[in-house]
Amino acid sequence: MKKILIAIAVQVLALAACQQDEATSGIAEKTVIEAYLAAGVPVEVRISKMILYGSDVATDSLSDLPVRLLHDGQSFALAPQGGGRYVLDPAVLLPVAGATYGLEVEFQGETLTATTNIPARPAGMKLSAMTFDAPDFSGGIGSGPPDFPDPVKINWDTETGAYYLVVVENIEADPTPLFDDIDPDELPSFRSEPVQTNQYELNFQNFKYYGRHRVVLCRILPEYATLYQTNGNNSLNLSNIPTNILGAHGLGIFTGIAADTLFLEVE
Amino acid sequence: MQKLLFLACFLLCSTAFFAQTPDPESIRLDNLYAGTLAAVLEEVSQKTGIRFEFDRAKFGQQTIVHRATDVRNLLRHICRERDLKYYFGPDGTVHLVGKYERVDTQNLSQKQAHTGPPTARNFTMSGTVRDAQSGESLPFASVGVRGTSIGAATNVDGYFTLLDVPTDTCALTISYLGYETITVFLSPETPKTGLTLELEPAGQGLAEVVVTAEREDLLQTNGEQVSMIKMSPAKIATLPNVGERDILRAFQLMPGISAANENSSGLYVRGGTPDQNLTLYDGVTVYHVDHLFGFFSAFNPNAVKDVQLYKGGFPAKFGGRLSSVAEMTGKEGNQRTAAGGFDIGLLSANAYYERPFGDRWAVLVAARRSWKSPLYNQIFERFAGENEAPGLPGGGNLPSFASTVKSYFYDLNGKLTFKPSSRDILSLSLYNGTDKMDNSTKIELPSFGGGEQPDIDFGITDLTKWGNSGASFKWSRRWGERFYSNALVGYSQYFSERDRSAGGSFVDEDGTEQDFRRGTLENNDLRDLTAKVDFEYKTHENNQLDFGLQFTQNRIAYTYAQNDTSTLLDRDEAGLTSSVYLQDKLKLADGRLTLQPGLRVSQFSATQKWYAEPRFSASFKINNSLKINAAAGQFYQFANRVVREDILQGSRDFWILADGKRVPVGSAQHYIAGLGWENSAYLFSVEGYRKNLHGLTEYSLRYSVVPGQDVSYDENFYNGTGYAEGIEWLAQRKFGNLTGWASYTLGRVRYNFAQYGAADFPANQDVTHETKLVAQYRWRRFDFSATWIYATGKPYTAPEGAYQLTLLDGTKQDYINVGAKNAERLPDYHRFDVAATWRFLPRPDGREKGSIGLSLFNVYNRSNTWYKEYEIVDNQLIENNVRFLGFTPNLTYSFKF
Questions:
Q1: Contact, B486 vs B472, CB < 8 A?
Q2: Closest CA to B845 of B131, B95, B55
Q3: Distance between CA B38 and CA B64 in Å, rounded?
Q4: N or C: which end of chain B has fewer CB within 10 A?
């Protein structure tokens, strides 16, 4: 009887030990690839490790992987720059609009691949006004709410089914805030959600600073648009992450973009 | 279809051939009566032959003036005017007593068996079982001939028929959950038809000490129907609660029903989900039963008379669900006098009023509404506090504007009952309940300076609203002693609206109003129009046939839209389910063996297919205490509630009609076997079950993203199979001041969806071990109760890891890489609750007018985990547990008049 009990205890302990092993070592390491290709812009790829669940060790970038760009049947090796950054000498290759590019990364014996193309630059971009006249916020108590200016409309010629994204960025070296309570750590930029329309309206309420702003209209691809869908942040609503990196150990984004830019003044 | 309609007409017409029998209350008088009570009743007695018994010294000289149409009309007038009540004794004598006088039916008949020889043998006896105080009929009460296997249950309207009663000198035993069991000795004078048997609520007031009858507990199980449990709505008030006593919450304390769901009052029965449970309220299907994030259910206990739950293997009478049936019968309203009451707790106020109108009408109205107490706010913040306002258009920020959360729920119940004759009952039942939570912010900027500047009307909408409406009209008719019909037309609607968006309008420089809206909009609208007729036919003393027809027209729409321009999912489907059923209840071997074979056949218009559902159950009494039972059956479900895997806020599920393609018709096979030992004080039972499930559906965007292609939302219905199996143990003490039960369930629910991999995975509702201890103790005018619940943690999907990407505008976005489906378990759930109720202001009948209840929820403040949140901080994946409610006290004050 005693032997049986000891045998059972050993079995239970062995089972517990196995479960423990499974919990900590069952998750495979994965790479996270991040690369945006634009016509005329040198190719740059960033690679890091996925942060493992249950691990209390902060993960690092990966700086010693073989990384290649594929184009027209040719392969071009990217040079590691440290910090997970890889670049391709622009003298060797500069991306062009309408072309297709591939990426290969060697990681733990697996070749991770991705393919994208660089879309044509958005055509016909127009702004309905070149300036925003900021309302007077110094009215004090009793003066009522300020009168906001009309929105500035951005129009462009859309292609059927194409996705666009608008990014607005203040380009002043030391911009003056519109309101007193602007968080100094907040980026001096904002963006739209991906849209499939041919216009977007910039409301004055979206701006945080006076001065010159760059209004960038990006033509983006579906693989990038899907990054704007939330994939949940808790155990009730987690869903798979959108990625166009193929391979069991690959995550992230490799996509082409094209953009046109106009400027807007907030006075 | 034509055949079904023809059959319905035939069945309705054929009922006219069944014989009818006279009813003493219906004897016509058509006379003006004026004089003392004693003189008037003497005159009536001479005319009709009915004998009257009453306290002549106390009531005999009271004056009566009334033109009476029949005996019932006269008696009801007298009772109403003089605060009396009446009933027929077993010998046919009419007894009049004070309205609050406690009735001992045994005294009214005979204390002992009739000593003379019987004058009739093997005759049929019928009548009604009622609540002695209110005159409410008692459905599904048990009436049996003592010492024999002859017995019957009252039907939903309280009628019973006993065929082949051996002699007119034997004794009847009448029992009903929550009421004193009584024995009535028959005599040759006892009427054979129209007998009214009245039961007193159990354990009420001081009179209890002299009552010798048996006492029934809150819970009744191990009856003739396999896997069915009954609960007394009147007795759930003594159980611990949060804010409001609740019928479905009380059911969650029963074995086989999962209790570790603070955020759902729906019933998870034997591994099934709430949508797989058919919830019937007065014959109408209720599709969503949650109030206040599911913290308690939509059913007002003041309006409910009877509840029974079939945990599996349910009869052919019921269809359209895979797992179980909860059948609730609403109160008709007091038949004898006006009555009412109210309850005020820390969540809501609840009031009801009931009264008869004339001799044949009765009405009941009940209403509840929440109010903003600290407890309400605590629950609201815990369950709604995770909501974040949707992002503003363009991702920018406005100067902050304060918003006030507006939130409430209410429900209304009404029932009107009309009894045009002693054979017919017409009733109209209405229900309406709504939950609304509005966390919206609205900013209006009027123009200044003579309107030269544009108006801006901007708002962030965060609105959740859901509710049910239901109405049913029912006609019940007793065609003869053996034949009864119940025809019903019902309408049920469920809606759920979710609007999390930012938007508004402004007037531009051209004077044109421009609208804009960005965010998520969900809308689910379900309508159910049902017509059905049920028949009961007792072919002989040991056999009853039940058969009927049901037609249900469903229309279910669901839309899921983003930014008011792109509708991602838009379904609007209608379908007619036509069903016919036949079931037989047969008793063999001197009543020791009960067999219940049945068949339900349905035709579903959306798939143009027929579905046959054979059912069978059997129970065998090995001896007076020991019984074995078994059941098996096939079940189909045509309207499914589909769970969305990918969202947290708002409705995580939506109703949708099967189309046989992306959403298949669900099906299940049940296999049940059990053993029970029971005497008058204790019950021990064990029951095992296995359910095979097919056609399960889940909606998810988990695999929707295909690089290089547009997102397709309509194709993300995943289909799978599954099974649920388990064993339930129950030990119950039913008698004495200390009652209660201990139950343990060992269970397993596994699903298999190809999209999640080849292996089975634990379903969301899977609980391996679940233990419940429930104790109730009565001391003087105090009721004490305590419950302890322990359950294995629910499965959840954990991430494998996470990373950040820098988007084109420079912001960093977190992405969490999902791991295997439901591969991890939350910590075990356990909780201890206690409650004490003090009853005061006793009335002459021993019942108390008022009570104060103190309830302590989660006494040892266990931090039970609801779900886990993840975020990336300093290049690490941080996990936070979101908890259910901690220690929560509640006080309830109730008053009845």
A1: no
A2: B131
A3: 9
A4: N
- Tokens representing B424 are 């017919």
Q: How far apart are CA B73 and CA B123, in angstroms?
A: 30
Q: Tell me how far apart the 2 most distant CA atoms of chain B are, in Å.
A: 104
Q: Where are the beta strands (DSSP E) in B734-828?
A: 738-753, 761-762, 769-779, 782-791, 795-796, 799-806, 812-818, 824-825
**Contact assessment for residue B624 and residue B305, using Cβ atoms and an 8 Å cutoff:** no
Distance CA A254, CA A237 (A): 26
Question: Contact A226/B646, CB-based, under 8 Å?
Answer: no
Contact (CB<8Å) A252/B805: yes
Distance CA B758, CA B186 (A): 67
In chain B, positions 444-463, which contact chain A (CB-CB < 8 Å)? 445-449, 453-454, 456, 458
Contacts of B428 (CB under 8 A, 6+ apart): B415, B416, B471, B472, B473, B474
Instruction: Spell out the residues 6+ positions from residue B821 whose beta carbon is closer than 8 angstroms to its own.
Output: B753, B756, B757, B761, B797
Beta bridge partners of B892: B853
B243, amino acid identity: G
Q: Does B515 touch chain A (CB under 8 A)?
A: no
Q: pTM of the predicted model, to two decimals?
A: 0.78
* Number of other residues whose CB lies within 10 A of the CB of residue B65: 11
Give residue-wise pLDDT tens across range B810-829.
778 888 888 888 888 999 99
Cα dihedral sign, B300-B306-B310-B316 = negative
Please name the residues between 146 and 165 in chain A that touch chain B, using a CB distance below 8 Å: 147-148, 150-151, 161, 165
C-alpha B206/C-alpha B842 separation (Å) is 9
3-state SS class at B444:
strand
**Is-contact B280 B528, C-beta < 8 A?**
no
Closest CA to B568 of B463, B429, B661, B699: B699
The single residue listed with the structure tokens 């006269």 is B74
Report helix, strand and coil shares of chain A as percent, to nearest 5: 15, 40, 45
Confidence of residue A22 (pLDDT cuts 50, 70, 90): very low
Query: What's the rounded Cα separation, in Å, for the pair B446 and B458?
Result: 11
Residues 6 or more apart in contact with residue A152 via CB below 8 angstroms: A127, A128, A129, A132, A201, A202, A264
Closest residue to B798, CB basis, from A53, A144, A244: A53
Nearest chain A CA: its distance from B304 CA (Å): 34
Q: Which strands, in side-by-side order, build the sheet including B195-199?
A: B159-167, B121-131, B195-199
The type of residue at B537 is Y
Asked if B257 and B277 count as a contact pair (C-beta separation under 8 A), the reply is no
Which helix (H) or strand (E) is B526 found in, with range? strand B513-540
Instruction: Say whether A187 and B809 touch across the interface (CB within 8 A).
Output: yes
Residue range B264-305, pLDDT digits in tens: 888 999 999 999 999 999 999 999 888 877 777 888 888 998
How many CB pairs (< 8 A) connect A and B?
A: 202
Q: Which of A48, A205, A234 sits opposite B869 (nearest CB)?
A: A234
| B625 in Cβ contact with B679 (< 8 Å) | yes
Q: Which of residues 489-508 of B touch A (CB under 8 A)?
A: 506, 508
ipTM score here?
0.80
Range ranked top by mean pLDDT from A183-197, A220-234, B482-496, B700-714 = B482-496
List the Cα angle B51/B54/B56 in 5-degree steps.
115
**CA separation for the pair B762, B777 (Å, rounded):** 39
First to last CA, chain A: 90
